[in-house]
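Incident log, structure service

09:12 report received: a user says their structure output differs between two submissions of the same chain.
09:20 pulled the input from the user's history:
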Amino acid sequence: MTRLIDLTLTLGSERVSTVPGLAGIETTPIQTHETHARSNQRLCLATHIGTHVDAPYHFVPGATTVDEMPLEKYMGPAILIDLRDVARGLEPLTIEQVKAAGGMPEALPGKIAVLFTAWAENESGGPRFYGHGPYLGTDTAAYLADNGVNAVAVDFPIDKHPPTPQSTIHDFPVHRLLLGQGIPLIENLINLHELVGEEFELWALPLKLKGGDGAATRAVARIA
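09:34 re-ran on a clean worker, output below:
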């Protein structure tokens, strides 16, 4: 029997951390049941908040935007790489750790590599989420790319964040490496513990935002 596992943070909830320097989430009534016998709301949010996807244009000028990305890049067979035992705050995740957790070269081609540390489960919405967690080593990102992953999905900020929101071309090397090769990112997943030991597909189709560098998604795992 098919099971669906919701991997998505609820937008507007206290569990969503705001990216330093970006807007949060705001909903404003436009029409109400009392005034118009129906409800309509205005939604304001950054394109990279909560559970969302990144398109190459996020860090690569002139690259593919989220509305132009093939849908196949945001869905398909996935592999859970359980790094909970080795993930440490402010330390990079290494190639050897990924291999030891099941991310061997033969297991990666065509898959969405889902890196599971439980950081979002434990820290999203708190003051430590950005700037204090584990991050992906640049050589580890290159290892995933070289072995043909379809996308990379994470439950932690994939890059070590700079000390201020004013980033430079030297910051966010993992984003630049993966997105520069057309490998999208699926970020801030939860409930990954429900996928341990399972074969599954991951679906993270984003809003079709014209010219978008990323967009919110309702990420779901499908266990056959």
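09:41 both user submissions now match this output. Likely a transient worker issue. Closing.
09:42 reviewer note: The CA atoms of residues 81 and 98 lie 7 Å apart. The mean pLDDT is 97.
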